[in-house]
Design a protein that fits this description.
With about 350 residues, this protein is of the alpha/beta class. The chain has eleven helices and ten strands. Strands 1, 2, 3, 4, 5, 6, 7, 8, 9 and 10 form a ten-stranded parallel sheet that branches.
Length: about 350
């Protein structure tokens, strides 16, 4: 099934979804999820920081920004051999997709050849590839596509109305322009946002509306929970009700039915119970391993144990099966399967 956008997903309509009683919202999300995916299948991705710190952007949540004093020393671009060693380890641990992130506002042309070589090397290991390098120009996006890059990650972060309170060094339109360059180069889009930055429910609905109305909407949608890092402007952001995070996941599943909805930053802080609710709400991908850029992530063994307790398994399938539209499809009951070994 293609990831076609729905212009009918307005902020108001998604806000009405988020306002539903949680059992009703979860039931609707389950209908959509089962119409497009095996509900016990979780796609595993691993994320490596290939260039850490020193970013010229002033994103209020990010410890990699040069504007914030968090005690993080800026590093150089990682050597190819070390990147490939990390990719092999991720594959051995069960990851199907390997994501590489560099703390740049935008890559320089001289950087593109180096990261393209990383893509080629990781692809040769049999892994899907994803990169997040900041803003791209059309020729840079095409060079990455030519190297075999499967996905490019560039998050919208939040709704346009809230965006200026979080970031001043890059406009919302510049983010949209990069996504367009990625699409025109023939790559798939990984694009989501962050919840818990002080936004309200209507603003979370606005973010989902922006994502759902992309043409097409992203194949991969990371939903991040703010990780409050000392030294960043958002270190004292108010606590987010964890059920608001679950609601956001459920609404993402309903509005972008064929996407992989991924639990990303902040997953460890959610705890097993809230993660389980997120899987019931339609999340079917996680970042997996012990490194998530510069914040912690759940340990591999803990993830495997949680999957076993819930009857979930790490599947090789990375794209949804073709199916009828969610409105027309009856719920599909699929037997639980054993956890796949790494």
């Amino acid at each position: 099934m293609t990831s076609t956008p729905s212009r009918s997903w307005t902020t108001e309509r998604i806000k009405a979804l988020l306002d539903l009683p949680l059992p009703e919202l979860m039931w609707q999300a389950q209908q959509v999820h089962r119409a497009h995916f095996d509900p016990t299948d979780i796609q595993l991705s691993s994320l490596l920081s290939i260039k850490t710190g020193g970013c010229a952007e002033d994103c209020g949540y990010c410890p990699q920004s040069a504007h914030h004093d968090v005690g993080l020393k800026a590093g150089k671009l990682m050597d190819l051999d070390l990147v490939l060693a990390n990719a092999r380890a991720a594959k051995e641990a069960g990851a199907a997709r390997f994501c590489m992130g560099a703390a740049w506002r935008e890559p320089k042309d001289r950087d593109i050849d180096a990261v393209a070589a990383m893509v080629e090397g990781v692809k040769a290991l049999g892994l899907e590839t994803c990169m997040t390098l900041g803003m791209l120009q059309p020729d840079q996006a095409q060079r990455l596509a030519d190297s075999g890059l499967d996905y490019y990650n560039h998050n919208l972060d939040t709704t346009p109305e809230f965006y200026g309170r979080i970031i001043t060094t890059r406009t919302y339109q510049e983010r949209l322009d990069t996504l367009q360059h990625v699409r025109e180069a023939g790559m798939k889009v990984c694009c989501g946002g962050i919840v818990g930055m002080g936004e309200d429910r209507a603003e979370r609905a606005g973010l989902l509306a922006e994502l759902a109305r992309l043409d097409p909407y992203p194949e991969s949608v990371p939903i991040n929970a703010l990780v409050r890092v000392a030294g960043t402007p958002l270190e004292h952001a108010p606590d987010l009700d964890p059920f608001e995070f679950v609601r956001t996941v459920a609404a993402a599943r309903i509005t972008m039915p064929a996407a992989r909805v991924r639990l990303s930053a902040g997953r460890r802080e959610l705890g097993d119970g809230i993660q389980a609710l997120c899987f019931l709400a339609g999340a079917n991908s996680i970042f997996y391993g012990d490194t998530l850029l510069v914040t912690g992530n759940a340990e591999v063994d803990a993830d495997r144990a949680l999957f076993a307790r819930l009857g979930l398994h790490a599947g090789a399938q990375t794209t949804p099966a073709a199916s009828a539209s969610p409105a027309a499809a009856a719920p599909k009951v699929i037997p639980l399967q054993p956890l796949a070994s790494a």
